[in-house]
Amino acid sequence: MSINRQQGAQNAYNTLELIKQLDSSYICGVELSGDPRNGKFEDFIPVFDRARQQGLKISLHCAEIPEQMGES
Which residue among 3, 42, 43, 48 is least packed, with the fewest CB closer than 10 Å? Predict the structure, then answer.
């Protein structure tokens, strides 16, 4: 499942709740995606901590543009 940084952290939490309701055998993880110029990686750290607690694997796309090299 993809968490789009442009849609905010609350939407990301809603995605995690949806994953709980679905058959988890089809979902192995979540990723942070979206335009790296919108949304802050720091806002999503608690979301991905919760995802790990739910046993999900994580893929992050961050520091993709020079202005965000501090995210890495």
Answer: 42
Rounded Cα gap, residues 42 and 4, in angstroms: 14
Please tell me the pTM assigned to this model. 0.78
Q: Is 64 an annotated catalytic residue?
A: yes
Residue 44's nearest CA partner among 72, 3, 2 is: 3
Choose, from 17, 42, 64, 67, the residue flagged as catalytic.
64
- Tell me the pLDDT tens digit for each residue of 10-30: 999 999 999 988 876 788 899
**Which residues lie below 8 Å from residue 7, measured CB to CB, with a gap of 6+?**
34
